[in-house]
Amino acid sequence: MATPQFILDLRRHIGHAPLWLAGSSAVVVRDGPRGPQVLLVQRADDGEWTPVCGIIEPGERPDEAILREIHEETGIVAEVVQLVRVNVTAPVTYPNGDRCQFLDHDFLCRWVSGEPIVGDDESSHTGFFGIDQLPPMAPRHRRCIEIALNPADTVIMSSDIATPALQETR
């Protein structure tokens, strides 16, 4: 499902007005033949490679949401290791004019079983990549992977918006 029904329902009332949404992202790691590998998906809409991410449904916990998204998008079964970051994304405007901004919960997850498959129409490709063989991707996605692979003792609070009041903290 590309856009959850609750968002489609809201859009009928508010049009393209900005929405503040909760999201989850996962850096899923498994041991590969030459070291750790990270699960990535290639988005069908813009071709960008990203960690698995998605919108949290009403009443759903962020950790439950990301495990659901991992399985829906890739067929992989994973388990949450830890929450590594809570990040405010920059505002996004989609091609249809919808505007939103996310409070994203970034998780380090461990692969449990399965081989990656494209599970829905949100992605065109999926696969595990060696840490030193990641495809080109946006800096914010590389940062998510970097943080998850080198977790701090506490959750990082950060923002993609460059303002003096919103600095990354641990």
Automatic annotation (TrEMBL):
Pfam families: NUDIX (PF00293). Its cofactor is Mg(2+). Residues 19-151 form the Nudix hydrolase domain. The keyword Acetylation does not apply. PROSITE patterns: NUDIX, NUDIX_BOX. The keyword Hydrolase applies. It comes from the Bacteria. Keywords: Hydrolase. PANTHER family: GDP-MANNOSE MANNOSYL HYDROLASE, MUTT_NUDIX FAMILY PROTEIN. This is NUDIX domain-containing protein. It comes from Cutibacterium namnetense.
